Amino acid sequence: MPTVEVTDVKDGDFLLDVREDDEWEAGHAEGALHIPMSDFVARYGELTEAAPQDGRIHVICRSGGRSAQVTMYLVQQGFDAVNVDGGMQVWAASGRPVVNDKGEPGYVL
């Protein structure tokens, strides 16, 4: 499965967060698109509208399990998708910013 490290995700890269609403509200990467894995099939069109044409989709969850499943699905659909290894736990631990819906400092639930 295509995987990248948190440090490989650059500012401006397209990031898809597939965690559930309560996890997202507690804290997320600023600028990420939020589509919970549980809603992914129903909201798939939101991703296809927002994702960059011919660009890479970086998929993230809390630790990497759910994002791995979504990444594999996207790869099967022909997208250039990669799983962010370690998820938001590693994102926060590496000092990357985590914000809540108000733009204030957040935390990983």
Number of H/I helices: 4
Uncertain residue ranges:
none
Strand order of the largest sheet: 1-5-4-2-3
Structural class, please? alpha/beta
Helicity level: 25-40%
* Straight-line distance between termini: 25 Å
Cα-based radius of gyration, to the nearest Å: 13 Å
Shape by Cα distribution: globular
Mean pLDDT: 96
The ordered string of helix (H) and strand (E) elements is EEHEHEHEH
Main sheet makeup: 5 strands, parallel
Strand content: 15-25%
Record field, number of beta strands? 5
Overview of this structure, please?
- The chain is 29% helix and 17% strand.
- It has four helices and five strands.
- It has helices spanning 21-26, 44-50, 65-76, 87-93; strands at residues 3-4, 14-17, 33-34, 56-60, 80-84.
- α1 (21-26) links the parallel β2 (14-17) and β3.
- The N and C termini lie far apart (25 Å).
- The relative contact order is 0.27.
- The model has no long low-confidence stretch (mean pLDDT 96).
Key traits:
five-stranded parallel β-sheet; globular; 4 helices; 109 residues; 29% helix; alpha/beta; 5 strands
Please outline the helices and strands:
Layout: E1 3-4, E2 14-17, H1 21-26, E3 33-34, H2 44-50, E4 56-60, H3 65-76, E5 80-84, H4 87-93
How would you briefly describe this protein structure?
This protein has 109 residues and is an alpha/beta fold.
